[in-house]
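Exercise 3.2. Students should predict the tertiary structure of the chain below and write it as structure tokens, then compare their answer with the key that follows.

Predict this chain's 3D structure.
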Amino acid sequence: MTDTTNSTPEEIKIQTKDLRPKKSRTQAWDGWRPGPYGPPSAPSMERRIAEESALEMAAISGHGRQDGRARKIRPRRTVDIGGSMARWNLMRSLKTCADEHYFIRPCIDHLVEFLPPQAYPRNPSTSILTKYVHTSTNKVRCPINIVRFTPDARRVLTGATSGEFTLWNALTFNFETILQAHDTAVRAVDWAKSGSWLVSGDNAGMIKYFQPNMNNLQVFEGHKDSVRDISFSPNDSRFVSCGDDGLIKLWGFEERREERNLVGHGWDVRCVKWHPTKGLLCSGGKDSLVKFWDPRSAKCLATLHGHKSSVQACAWNPNGHIVATGSRDQLIKVFDIRMMKELVALRGHKKEVCSLTWHPIHHDILTSGGSDGTILYWCLPESEPVDELEFAHDGCVWALDYHPLGHTLVSGSNDHTTRFWSRGRPGIKIANDKFHIGKEQAAMGRDLAAGKMKWKTPQSKGGGGGGGGGGGGGRGMSRWSTNINIGGADVTGELDEFGREIPPQNKDTGKNW
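Answer key:
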């Protein structure tokens, strides 16, 4: 110890300063240890956790909004089939019987046991996609003419009348990218069977080649008028296109050269599809004819007079034996090419049929879209629809496409929206309308938009002026009012703000009757 008896205060201060522990310059500061002059600091967070915390705090405090209000954190709905696929692969590896079948229990508790459509080959009802999932809309609103899943099924490609290609995530349905692909409306798109090329046609008759990364490599004039449909051959060496100039053209893909010109339709050719495995073409036109062509000789093999109006769409069944055609006469005809005869006529649409597609797994299921926004599901050989999505869209359903695994359906419409549909949960009944609220309420909502219903604001409870809430009265609730004709008598009904019917009250008892 140092003797400080006869030392001055200044000497004592210097000696005390020398007794303090000296920190080495090479010693790194450890946040877990308390410093000599302050409390211990918390450990540093990972960058990802710090960013998530900052986003949550910004959403709670309202940063990023001009009005300063807090943002609502809404979970995004996803449709992930990975878990059911893994479970099905495990069950297939462990099963002991070759003809073992899987069953679905009608209970929500058994949702984890819901397998993909491939697990139910003899039960096509598991692939009726009536559950509304999500609506995707471009910032620039315009009709959607084309919807197609990419070959890897990770994204959905949409083509609009603005000439833009938009890519949406097929799992979370959020926006990914957009590009100006054409100068006019996109009318036709088809992926090569290999998945390495995309061919598209527009309203000006131009045909373009794209890579999967949406890099445009080639562009040339294919038709003098609008291109209506494009379809690849099974080996991707050729593709066929049709247009409003009344021609069907066969192109060599690599040479970009017109090989043959198929002439036979007397008017605009609206659709053409190549057979899944054979050298056979099917086309439909505005002359109400369905024609089959040999692409090698450019000759018409057969002509079917099954429709009374313009043929809008045609689609080959994956088995290659039957083809479906949809027309403006509100009918869907299914033909067997082995006999060149009509198998069944499907009646159910109230207006013209605009789009057709077959289920990739259950080949008996056919899905069609109409000009009134309705989507119908058919299960052959039944001639009546097995399910109906009334008011699925507010406009014409121009395009439909299935996920390659068959658990998701995407639709594009004239109402500027792209909508996704999936399988319902087992044991839960789904109403057959757009938002699953019932046909009557959906019809009332459409009548309101058309101006057929009146908006009524009753007086507030507790006195006061009328309207949404008068002075001295409680908060009023707005109601829907409509006149319904029952048995020749007009009955006035009221709906609350949720669209539910309000029962009338008995004046004597004051109770609902």
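Discussion points: The first helix runs from residue 9 to 19. The two ends are 100 Å apart (CA to CA).
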